[in-house]
Amino acid sequence: MGYMTINNRRVTFDQEKNVLSVIRKSGIDLPTFCYHSELSTYGACRMCVVEDDRGKVFASCSEKPRDGMVIYTNTPRLQHHRKMILELLLASHNRDCTTCRKNGICTLQKLSVQLGVNYVRFENNKPQIPLDESSDCIVRDPNKCILCGDCVRTCEEHQGLGILEFAYRGSNMQVMPAFNRKIGETNCVGCGQCRVVCPTGAITIMHNISPVWKLIYDSNVRVVVQIAPAVRIAIGDKFGLPKGENALGKLVAALRRMGFDEIYDTNFGADLTVMEESKELMERLESGENLPLFTSCCPAWVKYCEDQFPDLAKHISSCRSPQQMFGALLKEEARENREDQRKTIVVSIMPCTAKKAEIKRPEHWTDGEQDVDYVLTTQEVSRMIKEAGIDLAQLEPEALDMPFGISSGAGAIFGVTGGVTEAVLRRLVNSNKVADLEAISFTGIRGVEGVKEATVTLGEREVKIAVVNGLKSAGEVMKKIQSGELYYDFVEVMACRRGCITGGGQPVPIGPRTKKARVEGLYRIDNLAQIKLSNENPIIQSLYDGMLKGKEHKLLHNNIQR
Ligand code: HC1
Ligand code: SF4
User: Fold this and answer.
1) What SS3 state is found at 112?
2) What are the residue boundaries of the 4Fe-4S ferredoxin-type domain, all occurrences included (predicted)?
3) Given 277, 380, 422, 492, the catalytic residue
4) Among residues 97, 145, 151, 297, which one is catalytic?
5) Do 187 and 56 belong together in one domain?
6) CA distance 329 to 551
7) Per residue in 480-519, pLDDT tens?
8) Residue with CA closest to ligand 2 atom 1
């Protein structure tokens, strides 16, 4: 513990790793482009510069706090310095802000307004580089890149992939995939984590808004929508609701006003996944084949495993993800049971950009039809709600539609790391007693660490479990499984750190407070759920006795040999 003086006020510090963190703790929101608390410090943007009592100017992100330091954060010299940086960045920036996807949420734009940059003296003579729209998940616009390196470090340090790199030197420097390939030609898994940290419009979500609006207004089409677990505790960020608040009811009300015909919950699909995945785990434990069982609900992880560890891909569960199970079920119901002659279109609202690629995989077609037709991220749906002139915050909450509008707390926690495992264990322990539920939650599967381990007794057997979040952590675990250094029976992997709550399609920024609130938000939904186990969901039970009978494999599993 020590103290420093910031703008004439005494501030204590303890574990803070740099001066910037102490300044922020003291309530001053010092601007940065390139600092993220969970990434390595790059110190390139120089926006967080401060001045000490001897007139020395330094980047506060790169300096450790020292006892007795005296610093100033907003002297005329610093103001001039920051404005100059912004002006130089804007000088080589494509400034079509009004039509930019990041308009309104761009850090460069926000800081230009905040720091009063009203005029740019320099011409942008740089030749325009074409957009890279080769991915189903993200769009790259190199003309908007400010070379902060956030995407480069995220892809390398969190995802262990290193798809994006710096290329060329000096004023020709760019961020791009190796050998200037298009992103769709690389092993990019579409997780969108580079988009989450990108402060400008250089990396944005591949939008699917226009076709969905057209379908909503097509009277020959019935548009059914499903809402993923992690959307409800994040969408409120865009409408001024408290962080982590469950806005499902308000979102349902908004979607009805926008014209969606039926509104369901992917948590119900998650209940189906729990039923099938727990069965598959028991079968593999009995046969001893293809252990560990890897979860299959995160498409970025599935692609990563297929690309990087093809010899282990046969361990991936044959279960479709909750989104895909539910999509296949909705389409089957439309084919079999409905008198409605309209064509059924299934739209998913997801926190995830990789889900946009998942729906296009060939195994996600049933009877010649694509199971899910469009994925809209939380960010896109927020935009649509605003386009429709609806203020989500003001709406009275409404209920989901039936017959698929009931789900368990186990389905809800899928959106946070460890949730899939906890849900599967609840099903296998098959007890809704508070003590048993608590015992599962205390096995070590909750928490934000990249790799968590647990050993659980199921019947006669000790089951070894790993819960992994972030692909870099996944890669480390996979190498040890491959070499025989580690053994597990069940491995849950979510590509994004902390799970889908920080998915590539979620509202940004996602700072430490937001992450914590979103995790707590999902657990709160579970705490309030009367049904805790997927197998106790009455609709799930009736489906297995009815429409799903004999079709479990066709609708709920993938028919691919890995
Ligand atoms: Fe997820 Fe899943 S939890 S993958 O993070 O298994 O996207 O929210 O919808 O499918 O249910 C995402 C979230 C989501 C699926 C479920
Ligand atoms: Fe890397 Fe994910 Fe971005 Fe692809 S989407 S470049 S894998 S961070």
Assistant:
1) helix
2) 136-166, 179-208
3) 277
4) 297
5) no
6) 10
7) 999 999 999 999 999 999 999 999 999 999 999 999 999 9
8) 155
